[in-house]
Amino acid sequence: MIPTLGHFALALGFAIAVAQAAIGLFGPNLRDAAVLRAAPALAIGQFVALVASFAALIWAGVVSDFTVRNVADFSSSTTPLFYRITGTWGNHDGSMLLWCLILSLCGAVVAGFGRTIPTSLRSRVLGVLGLVSGGFLLFTLTVSNPFARIWPPPMHGAGVNPILQDPGLAVHPPILYTGYVGFSIAFAFAVAALIEGRVDAAWGRWVRPWTIVSWCFLTAGITFGSLWSYYTLGWGGFWFWDPVENVALLPWLTGTALIHSAIVVEKREALKTWSVLLAIATFSLSLAGTFLVRSGLLNSVHSFAVSPNQGLFILALLGLTIGGSLLLFAIRAPTLATTGIFAPVSREGALILNNIFLCVIAVVVFTGTMYPPFVNLLFGIQISVGAPFFNQAALPLTAPLILAMAVGPLLPWKRGAIGPALVKLWYGAVVGFVILSIFLLRGHAIAALGLAGGAWVVCGALVDLAERIRLFRIPVSQSVNRLFNIPRAALGAAFGHLGFGIAVLGIAGMTLQIHTITVLHPGQGVDLGGYRWTLERVYDAPGPDYAARVAVVDVTRHGKQVMTMRPERRFFTAEHVTTEHAAISTNGIWDMFATFADEDKSGGAEFRFNIHPLAPEIWLGGLIMALGGGISLSDRRFRVGAPAKRRLRKPQGMAEV
Amino acid sequence: MMTRKQRRLWIVIACGIGLSTAVALMLVAFSSSLSYFLSPRQVLLKHPAPGDVFRLGGVVQVGTVVKAQRGGHPYTKFRVTDGQASIPVIYTGILPDLFRQGQGVVTIGSMAPGDKEFVADMVLAKHGASYMPADVEQALKKAGKWNPKFGPPPNAATWNDKTPKQIEAANQRNPVQ
Question: Does residue A527 sit at the B interface (CB-CB below 8 Å)?
Answer without folding.
Answer: no
